[in-house]
Amino acid sequence: MLSRTSGNITAAVTLILLTGVQAQHSVALSSQSLCAFTGSTVKISCKYTTADSSRVREREWYQLQSSDGEERVLSKDPQYSARVSVRREQNDCDLTVRDVRLRDSGVYNFRFRTSGSDWISASSGVNLTVTELQVKVDRKTAGQRKVKVICSSTCSLDANPNYDWYRNDIYKAYTDEAFIVLDSTSSADEGSYSCRVEDGSGKLHRSPFVCVLGKECWGVTYTPERVYVLKGSSVDLSCSYKHPGGHTVTKSVWFIKEQAGAEPVDVREDEEYQGRVQYRQSSQNDCTMRITHLRERDAQTYRFRFYTDGGEYTGEPGITLSVTDLKVTVSDTDSGGKKLNCSSSCTLPNNLTYIWYNHGQPVIPCKSASCSVAAVSGAVSYSCAVEGHESLVSPPVYSPRNTRAVMVSSGERMEGDSVTLSCSSEANPPVLIYSWFKQRAAADAPLTTGQNYTITSISSQHSGLYYCTAHNQLGQHSSTPTRLDVLHSAELWKLDAVWGAVGLVPVLALSLLTAVLCIKLFIQRDKKSSRREE
Hints:
mainly beta; six-stranded mixed β-sheet; single chain; 8% helix
């Protein structure tokens, strides 16, 4: 039996009057604190008095949770409505709470008001503590051959309770002590243990199982084992770990590579991950790691290792991370339009909201991964992003641009020669067709298709302006015309003659200058000779 409350039995303790007084109105509660096991029934005795038999207009039990101090009226709270009853005979206000839970812990108080008074309550309520039976390993024996396992609780039990022990949900032993000693070298003692005890009311309470001995007590669970994320975003690599009861974790690391005979390098200490890695421990056995600003080279397999005062464990196979970009693909529809699909090399969640852009502006109302657009004659450039990650925009798909037509051969082109024109263009998806045209006064003449256009044995009638047009699934674009001039053989002879005559001019000028210099030099020498003879 519990020393304060046990099952449906209220402990026989000295009545302590906790009274709030206002004109002889008062509330008296039978205890200041109670302790109960989960699943049991708790009763709090209560009486109230009114002055001159004043009529009670309203009365209620309320609770103040120890975690946040929030006041909750039990009759109005759906978590209590089916588990709570209040005695209403004469001036009784006893509260009974059935199937108590851990979250029921808190301070409980009763209050009432009459037609002539405000709320009247006890000066302090009853502090209820709800607890579970727990199996714990004596830390002094953890890792030793003889391991002491204890059945404990924050609630005090009767003087001589009996304990039943279960191993892997199978009955193992009976003790009149709150502990059992196991042999860590015996496979018969490996496994998870639970204890059961009977309180004074005859109600049985059983603890959750705790893994005490054996390989199955060690483990790391990755959820999931393969993760796909977008480049530039953040990701949580989720995992949880377990170890035998009584062990204390002294160190834990996430790592990528492991060298024989050496400790693995903590990802946080790798210069590639500086400032981008956080270990997020939301609960006792949580080992989640967050990586931010993801890069393509972050695509690795990550593993978690933890160390305890009784051993260490590495979780296999780890989490394989794939980092991907979004991409847009184009297909034709039966109606003549185009279907755009935003995807990646990885499978993305189905509930994402997409944003579509044309030339960097969000113009398409569609918010799904696949959208249909009408075919247009102008230039287009479509890209996509996922809502919440607007900065991670896919490379665009666009109609052809920067289209150019050039002549492959150089030099003079005369009749009978061969000439090749080549067309180039930027496009995504790639260019499907190149078309060649020759400009004419009446209408441009289509010539052929293909990236290169070759004319063999050209003649003067081939002279003129030529251009090409590049086509892909999203549109087309034409080049600036390029001119082809074809020279007749007679014209080429005249041109050679002219250039030949022009070439003689500097030769004759040089010869004349040389003759003048020679004559001048001869005259100067003749004068010097005459002076010497005189």
